[in-house]
Design a protein that fits this description.
The complex is a heterodimer of chains A (212) and B (10).
Chain A: H1 3-26, H2 34-47, H3 58-81, H4 96-108, H5 115-129, H6 132-141, E1 143-144, H7 146-173, H8 178-190, H9 192-200, E2 208-209
Antiparallel strand pairs in A: 1-2
Helix pairs in contact in A: 1-3, 1-7, 2-3, 2-5, 4-5, 5-8, 7-8
Chain B: no helix or strand
The chains are: A mainly alpha (212), B little secondary structure (10).
Chain lengths: 212, 10
């Protein structure tokens, strides 16, 4: 474990709970893409199947349980409890256009052709594009609530910190996983224009609005 | 190439 990965995991945890609290407190999921949340739930479920078979540490197992539980809870709040506030008119990204190609790629490009490894690879590839429905929804509505932009900033930062973690681990532990690094780069690049807007606008107390 | 490292990252 290194500081980049620890701060990255905490940033990820923060993002998930900022969103969960926003929905719970405001009793509304306006401006939030339910499709992205479904994809994130799929990412965690397919990635943490080894939760009971491969014990790494208490921290690792605890975080896996928290990530799965909190993301499933978010999907529940969005599609069941506060369904009336779900903005389905703007959350129209066709996620099958993500899941199918990512599923195919996981079969073709992976470290080992075993079910667990292919599912892990699928999860890594899917996570890199899972935010697209959310970014697409913001581009359609033209703006995002400030709390939603904080959520996105923390979520985008987590994988950027993981890139630093992989640089650290490469030099100090000789650890390198090309699939995770490439997908992590794609994932972080997708946030670049959002990061620019966040830093130039939200940091100065303005609302995040995309140029019309 | 099968890498034997356990998946220790989240």
């Amino acid at each position: 474990m290194n500081i980049f990965r620890l701060v990255g995991d905490l940033s990820h945890l923060l993002a998930i709970f900022v969103l969960l609290l926003k929905i719970w407190k405001s009793r509304s999921c306006a401006g939030v893409s339910g499709k992205s949340q479904i994809l994130f739930a799929l990412v965690f479920i397919t990635r943490y199947l080894d939760l009971f078979t491969n014990f790494i540490s208490v921290y690792n197992s605890l975080m896996k349980v928290i990530f799965i539980a909190s993301t499933v809870a978010t999907v529940y709040l969005m599609y069941i409890k506060f369904k009336a506030t779900y903005d389905s008119n703007h959350d129209t990204f066709r996620i099958e256009f993500l899941v199918v190609p990512v599923g195919g790629l996981a079969f073709l490009v992976n470290h080992d052709f075993t079910p667990l490894e292919i599912l892990w690879t699928f999860s890594i590839y899917l996570e890199s594009v899972a935010i697209l429905p959310q970014l697409f929804m913001i581009s359609k509505t033209g703006e995002a609530e400030t709390i939603t932009s904080h959520y996105l900033f923390a979520l985008g930062s987590y994988r950027a910190l993981y890139l630093l973690n992989w640089i650290y681990r490469y030099y100090f532990e000789g650890y390198f996983d090309l699939i995770a690094v490439v997908a992590g780069c794609v994932q972080t690049i997708l946030y670049c224009d959002f990061f620019y807007l966040y830093i130039t606008k939200v940091m100065w107390g303005k609302k995040l609005s995309l140029p019309a | 190439d099968k890498d034997t490292k356990a998946k220790d990252e989240l």
